[in-house]
Amino acid sequence: MFTMKYLPVFVLCVYGYSLCQVAADPMQEFLGHIDNATNNLWVQMETDSDHVFLRDDLESFIHSYDTDNNGHVTMVEFFHHFLKDDPDLGSVAYGLFQEFDANQDKVVDTLDLDTVYSRMDLNKDSRVEEDEFKRYFNSLLTVLYLLIVQGIPDPGPIE
């Protein structure tokens, strides 16, 4: 089961490493790091190697972050798990939580995951192929990176 505990590391690599490198084309360098992070996410999250990310694969998110086993993930639970490896990624955690909390009711539950899965399923065939998955996360990580560069504030401790 994928625990998404490595997502902060991938995101950090995407924006931290790209800022430290000098490249002939910084945009291509940046896009390459986003692509690498997305490829790593695919390897971690698509656990049965059938090249299809199923709704059940996304459901593992609930199980890995839902510490009180009540069927949904609160912002506190999400931040606790997401930030334990790198507490400096509060803005990224906040952005991801906002994306995953599709109905903005302050918890991520099955209905939210249905919406997120639907967003990933670009051709609406109820299956998320590798290309769809990567396009979704490439876009999401790019937006989050750009928001961080623009200086969205870290929300601080979530109580």
**How many structural units, i.e. domains?**
1
Oligomer class: single chain
Q: How many strand units? A: 4
The topology string of helices and strands comes to HHEHEHHEHEH
Biggest sheet, spatial arrangement of strands: 1-4
Mean pLDDT: 79
**What summary fits the major beta sheet?**
2 strands, antiparallel
Estimated share of beta-strand residues: 5-15%
Q: In DSSP terms, counting alpha (H) and pi (I) runs of 4 or more, how many helices?
A: 7
State Rg: 15 Å
Which residues sit in consecutive blocks of at least 5 with pLDDT less than 50? none
User: Can you give the helix content as a percent range?
Assistant: 55-70%
**Distance between the ends:** 28 Å
Provide the descriptors you would attach to this structure in a database record.
7 helices, 159 residues, 4 strands, mainly alpha, two-stranded antiparallel ribbon
Structure description:
- This protein has 159 residues and is mainly α.
- It has seven helices and four strands; from the N terminus they run ααβαβααβαβα.
- The strands form two sheets. The chain has a two-stranded antiparallel sheet with strand order 1-4. Strands 2-3 form a two-stranded antiparallel ribbon.
- Helix 5 (90-100) crosses helix 7 (130-149).
- The protein is globular.
